[in-house]
Amino acid sequence: MLYLVGLGLSDETDITVRGLEVVKKASRVYLEAYTSILLVDQAVLEAYYGRSIVVADREMVESNSDEILRDAQSEDVAFLVVGDPFGATTHTDLVLRARELSIPIQTVPNASIMSAIGGCGLQLYNFGQTVSMVFFLDNWRPASFYDRIKENRAIGLHTLVLLDIKVKEQSLENMARGRRIYEPPRYMTVGQCAQQMLEVEEDKKEGVYGPDSLAIGAARVGGKTETFVAGTLRQLCDADDLLGPPLHSLVLLGSRAHELERDYAREFAVDKEIWDKMWAEQYGKQ
Amino acid sequence: MLYLVGLGLSDETDITVRGLEVVKKASRVYLEAYTSILLVDQAVLEAYYGRSIVVADREMVESNSDEILRDAQSEDVAFLVVGDPFGATTHTDLVLRARELSIPIQTVPNASIMSAIGGCGLQLYNFGQTVSMVFFLDNWRPASFYDRIKENRAIGLHTLVLLDIKVKEQSLENMARGRRIYEPPRYMTVGQCAQQMLEVEEDKKEGVYGPDSLAIGAARVGGKTETFVAGTLRQLCDADDLLGPPLHSLVLLGSRAHELERDYAREFAVDKEIWDKMWAEQYGKQ
């Protein structure tokens, strides 16, 4: 059996009781560690599970899945995924390959940023499609998120923006020289995301949002130190100190927002006066 | 402290380790049991937790929240919610009241139908806003879901439809006579949902979807007996036997669907030939 086990969002105790039973009895345990991270180290997980873990990087999952799936027709293999196995990304290829090999599959769901973001006070019913924001480079500034946000905003919906992480990346020089030396991990902050969003709006000039648009920055959602900061995109460009360490996400508000959402999120406002003013001008009118 | 603890989607072992610790040490434990249900009885939960649980119905949560929050400034109160505390519904009022009373709040997230539905093979990035379907009555057929689906379909997105449950409902006669006698619980099936959707399309005639539109019925998502059935809305009207017992949900496909989604979900098709034909005609063209 191939078990896809969600680990939840924060630390070793966020696994479900059922998930923990699977991990303890599986023949082999893999941890997918390139689309998201927990806020604790692998060693903490291993001590907690009483098991050693193989960290599966992107290359292994995408090119060497048969090693992960080896003998899973008759043995139990646990593939651990931060959040929910179907949360921010999916492992469709791995499951399709398992099916080809006649390996039975079972999923152990867990918390995902896609529902836990509700802790910011915005109703999940009012969210449109989720988008991703990657680190811009000088000559690579993918802006497809902008069209997706435009679609959401056109019908009044909030947009959850998931932020890039860079784990086990090589510098161009090390890659060219074939040196397996990796850069320190990087996690995009709310400030960087808000800044990139405003740059793209300045380029495109379609008025999808602007510096005064309201948004909520979120840090370590689902964890004990979960933090939300609400304000305009301009304010969120400088709110990283308030938010603290990674992981960060951002929600851009849609106009269909409800007064209860305003009151709930107001608690997190950088400046309650500005929050009230911008809300009155732009939101809650549908 | 007020703890909002998600229980996950299926049985007593879906609680997280952190959630279980909270339940074991809290002074009082409430279970919100009117927006969703687990697939196991209260007695099973009580035996597993080693605690007695107060079932909180809608009236208690909405009108008597101060009893739930009593002394939570200094004691720990656990408020258990099926799925994720912010999943299908929110308990905004309870949290706002707790804030007024200066009660600290902590959330223990868990799996939600909103991410676990990814098990059907559709990418969560391609979902628009989630809608709800209630049991129609002769003179009450709320169809706001139709406009929401229209918005999602206009931009090619899938729609998750959450289905009504009726727990602790009184008949009109018993209500009029003030008798606290409750009807047996009712859970909407995928067949009933598909039927109501088609009836509303017949009324409105806007061509938002039709009998040949592809959808996926889902049953007991996240549980060990999780089942998906894929087909046209017409086929899903008669697929309840394949799906089995509650809870059910339904996903209507959007045109932005990807080939990987087609291949993954095809496994669940009532009739793979019809699935392929309808897909080729209607989907995956963006």
Mean pLDDT of chain A: 92
Q: Percent helix among the residues of chain A?
A: 25-40%
Tell me, what is the CATH class of the largest domain in chain A? Answer: Alpha Beta
Total count of domains of chain A: 2
CATH architecture name of the largest domain in chain A: 2-Layer Sandwich
Write down the CATH topology of the largest domain in chain A: Methyltransferase, Cobalt-precorrin-4 Transmethylase, Domain 2
Summarize this, please?
The structure is a homodimer of 286-residue chains. By secondary structure, chain A is of the alpha/beta class. Chain A has two domains: 110 residues, Cobalt-precorrin-4 Transmethylase, domain 1 (3-Layer(aba) Sandwich); 170 residues, 2-Layer Sandwich (Methyltransferase, Cobalt-precorrin-4 Transmethylase, Domain 2).
Question: Your description of this structure?
Answer:
Chains A, B: InterPro entries: 4pyrrol_Mease (IPR000878), 4pyrrol_Methylase_sf (IPR035996), 4pyrrole_Mease_sub1 (IPR014777), 4pyrrole_Mease_sub2 (IPR014776), Dphthn_synthase (IPR004551). Chains A, B: Pathway: Protein modification; peptidyl-diphthamide biosynthesis. Chains A, B: It catalyses: 2-[(3S)-amino-3-carboxypropyl]-L-histidyl-[translation elongation factor 2] + 4 S-adenosyl-L-methionine = diphthine methyl ester-[translation elongation factor 2] + 4 S-adenosyl-L-homocysteine + 3 H(+). Chains A, B: Keywords: Methyltransferase, S-adenosyl-L-methionine, Transferase. Chains A, B: Belongs to the diphthine synthase family. The structure is a homodimer of 286-residue chains. The first copy, chain A, has helices spanning 17-25, 42-49, 58-63, 65-68, 92-100, 113-116, 144-154, 172-176, 190-204, 233-236, 240-243, 259-266, 272-282; strands spanning 2-6, 28-32, 54-56, 77-81, 105-108, 131-133, 159-163, 165-166, 186-187, 214-219, 227-232, 248-252. Chain A is α/β, with parallel strands linked by helices. Chain A has two domains: 2-111, Tetrapyrrole methylase, N-terminal domain (Cobalt-precorrin-4 Transmethylase, domain 1), CATH 3.40.1010; 114-283, Tetrapyrrole methylase, C-terminal domain (Methyltransferase, Cobalt-precorrin-4 Transmethylase, Domain 2, 2-Layer Sandwich), CATH 3.30.950.10. In chain A, the strands form three sheets. A five-stranded parallel sheet of chain A has the order 3-2-4-1-5. In chain A, strands 6-7-12-10-11 form a five-stranded mixed sheet. The interface between A and B is large, with 59 and 59 residues.
